[in-house]
TrEMBL record:
Gene3D superfamilies for this protein: 3.30.450.180, lambda repressor-like DNA-binding domains
Classification of source organism: Bacteria, Bacillati, Actinomycetota, Actinomycetes, Streptosporangiales
Name under which the protein is recorded: Helix-turn-helix transcriptional regulator
Superkingdom of the organism of origin: Bacteria
Transmembrane segments: none
Organism of provenance: Actinomadura napierensis
Stored Pfam families: HTH_31 (PF13560), MLTR_LBD (PF17765)
Span of domain HTH cro/C1-type: 8-62
Length: 263
């Protein structure tokens, strides 16, 4: 089991900071940082949190630091349907509903889908039921041929984007389960070419309903969470990348069949 000093040093190295950099950011002396890392000084709980804050340590890992220092965890982890998170859950649902008629979903740090809006439902109609058993994993759903991969025209580009995102996520906060998922679905193979290039962004091109829909996405997170669940929830909202795609989503369902297919 690692000491709190060893864990803090690992996080400092991960963030590529010197002891002086961390000391200045946390408004403490470099000597104190050195003494904490070597175990010659026992930090208070507030000091652990202060250093973790400057190192941008996720709340889950801050609890581990506190435990290693001999203190109780400070950050609870409640399910999103817990009464204490009602306001946050309502905010997530409001964002998802407001984004309709375009698809949007919320997922956790391991890419397990928490909830979606109605605009995503038509795309799931032909997905293998096995992939839709909770917890539904967005990476597996998007990259498995039994899932949405069969609809994605530029699957190699989408895989490269997912790969880059998960690599950055693991570099920021290592996770054994996410690493296993990366190795299962995203490890580069001989068929993978160089990362896609774009002057603006990489769209996801989906062939659906006789059309090719071009979508890009944005990510929304909670700004100042004090709960682990909220710290790890992200909302991904998809937007049309061209007028034809916008017209497809904005056409009422009873008129969709009358709309001309995108060539």
């Amino acid at each position: 089991m690692h000491t709190v000093g060893e864990l803090l040093r690992q996080w400092r190295h991960r963030r590529r900071l010197s002891q002086l950099d961390l000391a200045i950011a946390a408004d403490v002396s470099p000597r104190h940082v050195s003494l904490v890392e070597t175990g010659k000084s026992n930090p208070s709980a507030d000091m652990v949190v202060r250093l973790a804050d400057q190192l941008d340590v996720p709340l889950r890992d801050r609890n581990r630091l506190l435990l290693a220092a001999g203190f109780a965890p400070r950050y609870p982890e409640r399910p999103l349907d817990d009464g204490a998170l009602t306001a946050a859950r309502n905010a997530v649902e409001r964002v998802l509903r407001a984004h309709e008629p375009y698809p949007a979903l919320a997922f956790d740090r391991r890419w397990n889908i928490v909830t979606t809006n109605r605009a995503l439902e038509p795309f799931l109609a032909d997905v293998d039921p096995e992939l839709l058993r909770p917890p539904v994993n967005l990476l597996r759903l998007g990259l498995d041929p039994r899932g949405l991969a069969a609809l994605v025209v530029n699957l190699a580009d989408v895989r490269a984007v997912f790969r880059s995102r998960v690599r950055r996520q693991l570099a920021a906060a290592p996770d054994l389960e996410l690493t296993a998922l990366y190795e299962e679905l995203l490890a580069p193979g001989p068929e993978d070419g160089p990362p896609p290039e774009s002057d603006v962004m990489i769209p996801m091109v989906v062939r659906f309903g006789g059309r090719e829909l071009r979508l890009f996405s944005t990510i929304t997170t909670f700004g100042t969470p004090m709960d682990i669940t909220l710290d790890e929830v992200a909302i991904e909202s998809y937007y049309p990348a061209d007028a034809e795609t916008a017209a497809y989503f904005e056409t009422p369902p009873d008129e969709a069949g009358k709309a001309p297919s995108v060539s």
